[in-house]
Design goal:
The complex is a heterodimer of chains A (223) and B (457). Chain A is elongated. In chain A, helix 6 crosses helix 7. Helices cover 39% and strands 22% of the residues of chain A. Chain A is an alpha/beta fold and 223 residues long. In chain A, strand 6 and strand 7 form a beta hairpin. The longest helix of chain A is centred in the first third of the chain and has 13 residues. In chain A, strands 2-1-3-4-5 form a five-stranded parallel β-sheet, sandwiched between helices. Chain A has a four-stranded antiparallel β-sheet with strand order 6-7-8-9, with helices on one face. The two termini of chain A are 23 Å apart. Chain B has 457 residues and is of the alpha+beta class. Chain B is 56% helix and 17% strand. Chain B has eight helices and twelve strands. The radius of gyration of chain B is 51 Å and the shape is rod-shaped. The chains are: A alpha/beta (223), B alpha+beta (457). At the A-B interface, helix 8 of A face helix 5, helix 6 and helix 7 of B.
């Protein structure tokens, strides 16, 4: 994946670039808003990671300008602690996702991966399939090895999101956002509870586990 | 004192008064001009009519009694002891004066203006005589004239009256302006003085109100409210600084100690990894605490209020129950709910969610297995009530006020996880949304009631 990272703090930028390199991505980096905008408009990137606070042109201005110039690249905003309306203004400016600094790198990577997949989902998918697990979105039916699995509404949403991101790590907060539309950091293991219940329905009694726990990051649905 | 006068003369209201006086003076002058012109014109015409009437009556005398009677009439008319208005002249056909009090002039027919002959006291010097000359059927020349001194005196009277009038008007207006300006200036001065004292550091000063509810009182009330708000923000800032000083130093010190010990004692890579892992956890906890503090400060600043929208609170609560019911069940607790449909409140969805989640997580974490936690949402006499109740150990009555303080924890040993900021955040969010929080004994357990303000209150 080709990623543009615009971050003015040298240490954070190096942390981003190294981490993304290690994960096998190509990264271009800019240290200010103007250079960032130039790269965003001229290069073809799969994902952009933009810091909110940048010299010359701030992150919001950069993304607004890039969107005005017809750049549709999925964008992840980074911001510092505390802002209660930062997420909303970021999304309003044309951002697709939002992450508060400091963050675990696994969280960033998971979100970048999820962003990259987003455009493909625009086409109407009616059936999701991972190994022998099959989800029919129209009939709202889930089967594994042909055996029907009864899921409650939220469990269905949870599995749907995992299957949409099959093979990729999704974090607890991503699940909380996607399934419950909640944007907070729970102090309890609520998400784990739901995953373990889903796991009981999907994986129990089958040879192969599909829902994997990725330590320090989140979950991954894969064969 | 002189400085006060200078201030007064410089004041905006005084300058307005001056402008007003000037405009008013000009309009008085215009009225005066019109009246003066009309009066003078009228009197000049009257003078001509009077001369004409006199002339024709004298001609009648001549027609009836001849030149001698006419001469006697002219002499009678002009010879009165205090005569200052009638000036006539009767000449024979040779140009010789027969009667009259005017110096000999060349016979000149029609209307004419003549100077008044010098009198002894000179009081009517400069007056003119408006006269008309005719030739009589006998060849005599008769000139009948009247002095315009009455006209002049009337004009002078009018001018004098208006002059005094204008002067008095201007003086009264000026005095009025000064009094008004002084009043306004006093009010402005009060505000300025208070602002000065506040700038000098006395933040508790407030602008005194006049008590009449006028525009200055309204302005003062607004300014006072603004000052209250500023004080609140500054208190919040001070509180955050204190919190950082007291409660972030401890975990940071602990983290430092752990790293130092590991540097000296850890032997294997596993040892180091273990220390690094716990250190990262510690750091995350510190950052979370830090974030929560900033968040509370930001919420308390009240800026989020401008972005309030209508939030389907019933749906929010259902999602929360949906999210936490399974968790409660796994911990042998029960999360039940009675949520009325379609209850909408005005606010920030994320913050409202956070508020209820904090209460629910609090209940889940601080109660033993077997506890039932119940969430209720209902409308009671027009006000939205959200109740989070549990039948756990509860909180002693005397602690009720303290639990919303920052870093306050019932468990003084701080053995249970948590930053001690969860309920402070709840309090801040409630305050932002004008929700009153009531803690009750649920007999047994704790009942937290969130009472929303009625809409438009």
């Amino acid at each position: 994946m080709k990623i543009l990272a615009v971050e003015d703090d040298a240490e954070t930028a190096a942390y981003l670039v190294n981490g993304l390199h290690e994960a096998g991505h190509l990264v271009d980096q800019a240290a200010n808003g103007r250079d960032g905008l130039f790269l965003a408009v001229s290069g073809h990137y799969d994902v952009m990671i933009i810091d909110r606070m940048l010299p010359d042109l701030d992150g919001l201005g950069l993304v607004k300008a890039a969107r005005a110039a017809g750049v549709r690249t999925p964008t992840l905003f980074l911001s510092t602690l505390g802002g209660i309306d930062d997420r909303v203004t970021g999304l309003d400016a044309g951002g697709d996702d939002y992450l508060v600094k400091p963050f675990a790198f696994a969280e960033l990577l998971a979100r970048v991966n999820a962003l990259h997949r987003r455009p493909a989902l625009a086409t109407a998918v009616t059936v999701l399939q991972t190994g022998d697990l099959r989800m029919d979105l129209l009939k709202r039916r889930v089967t594994r090895q042909g055996r029907q699995i009864e899921l409650q509404h939220r469990e269905f949403r949870l599995l749907e999101y995992l299957m949409q991101n099959a093979g990729r790590v999704v974090t607890r907060t991503m699940l909380l956002e996607a399934v419950w539309d909640f944007h907070f950091d729970p102090q309890t293991t609520v998400v784990e509870t739901h995953i373990s219940r889903l796991r009981a329905k999907i994986d129990r009694g089958f040879e192969q586990e599909l829902i994997h726990t990725v330590r320090g990051a989140g979950y991954c649905l894969s064969e | 004192m002189p400085q006060r006068i200078v201030n007064l003369l410089r004041s905006y209201s005084f300058r307005l008064t001056l402008l007003y006086v000037a405009l008013f003076g000009m309009s008085v002058l215009v009225i005066f001009g019109v009246i003066y012109w009309a009066t003078a014109g009228y009197m000049a015409r009257e003078l001509e009519l009077s001369v004409d009437a006199e002339l024709s009556s004298l001609i009648d005398v001549q027609n009836a009694g001849g030149i001698d009677r006419l001469a006697a009439a002219v002499t009678e008319r002009t010879g009165a002891p205090n005569n200052r208005s009638n000036y006539d002249l009767l000449l024979d056909s040779a140009g010789k004066r027969i009667a009259g009090n005017l110096a000999l002039v060349a016979p000149h027919l029609g209307w004419q203006n003549l100077p008044v002959p010098n009198s002894e006291d000179g009081s009517d010097e400069g007056d003119t005589i408006h006269a008309k000359g005719v030739t009589l059927s006998t060849g005599h020349f008769l000139l009948v004239g009247e002095s315009n001194y009455q006209l002049k005196e009337t004009r002078e009277l009018v001018v004098r009256a208006f002059g005094w009038g204008t002067l008095v008007t201007a003086v009264l207006a000026l005095i009025g302006g000064i009094v008004m300006s002084a009043g306004l200036l006093r009010r402005v001065e009060a505000i300025r003085r208070t602002a000065g004292e506040i700038m000098a550091g006395n933040l508790s000063r407030r602008i005194p109100a006049g008590g009449t509810g006028d525009e200055f009182d309204l302005l003062s009330a607004n300014l006072n409210e603004m000052l209250d708000r500023i004080t609140l923000l500054m208190d919040g800032l001070r509180q955050v600084s204190n919190d950082i000083a007291h409660d972030l130093r401890t975990p940071l010190t602990r983290l430092r100690q752990r790293l130092e010990v590991a540097r000296g004692r850890a032997k294997t890579i596993e040892d180091f990894e273990a220390v690094v892992d716990t250190s990262i956890e510690d750091t995350d906890q510190i950052l979370r605490t830090f974030g929560a503090m900033l968040r509370i400060a930001q919420i308390e600043s009240g800026t989020a209020r401008s972005r309030f929208t209508d939030v389907d609170f019933s749906a929010v609560l259902r999602s929360i129950v949906d999210l936490y019911a399974a968790f409660a069940e796994d911990h042998h607790q029960a999360l039940t709910s009675r949520i009325a449909d379609g209850i909408t409140v005005r606010g920030d969805r994320e913050l409202l969610t956070q508020m209820v989640v904090n209460l629910v997580e609090n209940a889940l974490r601080h109660t033993p297995a077997g506890t039932q936690i119940d969430i209720t949402l209902q409308l009671a006499s027009g006000r939205v009530l959200c109740i989070v109740a549990d039948d756990g150990p509860g909180i002693p009555q005397r602690e009720h006020d303290k639990v919303f303080r920052r870093f306050y924890r019932l468990d003084t040993s701080r053995a249970t996880p948590g930053s001690g900021l969860g309920l402070s955040l709840v309090a801040a969010i409630a305050e932002l949304h004008r929700i009153s929080i009531i803690l009750d004994d649920n007999k047994p357990g704790l009942r937290v009631t969130l009472k929303f303000s009625p809409p438009d209150a």
